[in-house]
Amino acid sequence: MRASDIERVKGLPLFADVAPDTFRVATAGGHLQRFPAGTMLLLEGDPVDFLYVLLDGQVELHGTWNDHEIVLAILRPVSTFILAAVVLDAAALMSARTLERCEILMIPGDAIRTAMRLDSHFAMAVSRDLAGCYRGLVRNTKNLKLRNSTERLANYLLALRAADNSGGVVRLHHEKRVLASLLGMTPENLSRSFAALQKYGVSVNGAVVTLGSVAALENLAKPDPLIDNHAPRGGDIVADADAEVWLSDLTRAKPR
Amino acid sequence: MRASDIERVKGLPLFADVAPDTFRVATAGGHLQRFPAGTMLLLEGDPVDFLYVLLDGQVELHGTWNDHEIVLAILRPVSTFILAAVVLDAAALMSARTLERCEILMIPGDAIRTAMRLDSHFAMAVSRDLAGCYRGLVRNTKNLKLRNSTERLANYLLALRAADNSGGVVRLHHEKRVLASLLGMTPENLSRSFAALQKYGVSVNGAVVTLGSVAALENLAKPDPLIDNHAPRGGDIVADADAEVWLSDLTRAKPR
DNA sequence: CCGATAGCTTGATCTGCATCAAATTGCTCC
DNA sequence: GGAGCAATTTGATGCAGATCAAGCTATCGG
């Protein structure tokens, strides 16, 4: 593992303020692996032996039932995944599959749990990370239950814009098929939702989406700081909430 | 606070194996309060100053957007809520309202965070609790995205049965209006879904639901241990997963 | 006992989204 | 460059679930 990779791992919220000794214990036995695109890293129901740290590439987390498969999250570097299963030493509830060629650090779950036991500060960092993941899922559930599919797409585009702080042109990070499932719709309806957003100044060209009128789009999308982690907050209370991890990876787009 | 209440708090997974000193620090400044039915305990967006421990009654957690309100979870005693916000010292993402007269222990968030800093075992217990909540939400998301409303109802009934281990008669714990929103549907469609389940031996009389043929119902519901925490597991691996907290309160129905 | 109210059910209708079926675009690999 | 394949878009249709509008039932206070 390159020194620069170690620095990137240390940059994660999970390891950011951790004492060197603890970091050594926590990452003991970790090894870097490369996987081609389309590799199943983990099947739901499998016991989870490692904490995964994605250093390069994209990973999709999905769930299956009754022959249907839905995308639950897409991860981009640098981020960890299946921390909750590691903490509980439990079976995975989601499957993980590489969407591209990936570089992944695999850390034995035992090492993580040992480090937690030895260093309450690290255990607190794990708690904060999990609390952030939890809140990301709460936001996600509200998004799913309160908004229709076009509204979800509109908010997704605004979130992308906020993450990239690009003017009015954003790039989609994933295939539309995958994005559709992440947003809880079919690919056909994602197409139609994009078409419906033309009225609000949105035009699509492959992965490049131009937001002609952010104001009009916001008027439809009604972004809300209690659902969309990027949305402007009323006061300046709760700066800490930025520590949250937005499951759908947008904040991971660039180092924080 | 009665001694019996303290015992009940100690019975929570969060406090179960905690040293007496730590328990004292963690619950310092906690005070018991009684609230009438229909009281707003917390409004989404509010800063969260306390960890809430529900000792008696029922509490609903809900979210709002654009004049719509949806139920995210219903809590029954004994359980804690908004731990994630306490850990991050952040604003609440959900509102909390009493559904009945309630008895609630309110513990200052500072005390919890201090206890975590002092005792890595307690910090680990917090991590485990949060990991369980997180996994509950993952299950919930899979339930929402993979199943239709009748399937969700069918699985809910089977989960109730498993929690009460009642033969074939279960009691609904909540008003149907509330249950409908929890399951992601309208009250009208909950009625129709109950009607649709008649074919599978389900009959309803007020809050009392009779499952005439569990086999037929399971055939429709296809319960899955990776979505429904009560469902039978294949092997006997991962006994630890039982430590999970199923957000929608079913496992809380009786002391564990 | 009776009227009032809230919760629930039933029916009719409408909408959003899924599904099925092509047609089209874009990409990869010879 | 072009064949071949996958991804996306577009169109037609059907169904699940929302909405709107009555009716019904149960509970409660008088």
Could you describe the 3D structure shown?
The first copy, chain A, is of the alpha+beta class and 256 residues long. Chain A folds into 2 domains: 3-142, Jelly Rolls (Sandwich); 147-223, Arc Repressor Mutant, subunit A. In chain A, 39% of the residues lie in helices and 21% in strands. Chain A has 9 helices and 11 strands. In chain A, the strands form 3 sheets. Chain A has a 4-stranded antiparallel sheet with strand order 1-8-3-6. In chain A, strands 2-7-4-5 form a 4-stranded antiparallel sheet. The first copy, chain A, has a 3-stranded antiparallel sheet with strand order 9-11-10, with helices on one face. In chain A, a hairpin with a 2-residue loop joins strand 4 and strand 5. In chain A, helix 2 packs antiparallel against helix 4, helix 4 packs across helix 5 and helix 6 (149-164) crosses helix 9. Chain A starts with a helix and ends in a 35-residue tail after the last helix. The interface between A and B is large, with 61 and 61 residues. Chain A binds a DNA duplex (30 and 30 nucleotides) through helix 8.
End-to-end distance of chain A, in Å?
Answer: 22 Å
* Low-pLDDT ranges of chain A: 236-243
Helix content of chain A: 25-40%
The assigned structural class of chain A equals alpha+beta
Strand fraction of chain A equals 15-25%
Please describe the biggest sheet of chain A, giving its number of strands, its sense, and whether it closes into a barrel.
Answer: 4 strands, antiparallel
CATH class of the largest domain in chain A: Mainly Beta
| Rg over CA atoms of chain A | 19 Å
| Domain unit count of chain A | 2
The largest sheet of chain A has its strands arranged as 1-8-3-6
**Biggest contact:** A-B, 61 and 61 residues
Number of helical segments of chain A?
9
Look at the structure and name the CATH superfamily of the largest domain in chain A. Answer: Jelly Rolls
The averaged pLDDT of chain A comes out at 91
